[in-house]
Amino acid sequence: MAEVINQEKSGGKQKKKNVKIDMTPMVDLNFLLLMFFMFTSSFSKPNVMDLGLPAKSTHPPTNQIGDKNQITFIIGENNRIFYHQSNEKDLTEAGLKETDYNSLNVSKIISEAYQKAPNKDIFTIIVKPTDDANYKNFVDMMDNISISKKERYGISDIKPWEKKVYENVIK
């Protein structure tokens, strides 16, 4: 491992010893430790939300869901969420109601809309995040939909007529 080299000097002084250390075993030990920690450590799995998205179709949809067979949630700024069951002509500031992300409140709203739906087979939840919404609120909303056990939902951009009413409500 270590090698001692004697050097003799003239003049009756003491002999100086040079020590040379062989680093090969240390490198081997470092690689063994590195491999040990790599194999024994567990990597965290990323949390992924599974979204079942339909295949892209070249034909536009022929059937309309209808206002009463769907509920639309608009995710806004400052942890605010609004919902409605209206079309472009009927949506007013009074028709855009606000709630919070409490799973009981959202589940109750979804359940009430589902019970009032004329055709429960095509009842759909539509989530529309605004540009000011944050990712946490979107994930909370998707969790609430999962808790309500409704499998038909969609994610869409907010329509200009909805955005106009939304902006009037948050002012």
TrEMBL record:
The keyword Cytoplasm does not apply. InterPro entries: ExbD. It is a single-pass membrane protein; Single-pass type II membrane protein. The keyword Membrane applies. Keywords: Cell membrane, Membrane, Protein transport, Transmembrane, Transmembrane helix, Transport. The chain crosses the membrane at residues 21-39. Signal peptide: none annotated. It is found in: Cell membrane. Belongs to the ExbD/TolR family. This is ExbD/TolR family protein. It comes from Chryseobacterium zhengzhouense. The lineage of its organism: Bacteria, Pseudomonadati, Bacteroidota, Flavobacteriia, Flavobacteriales.
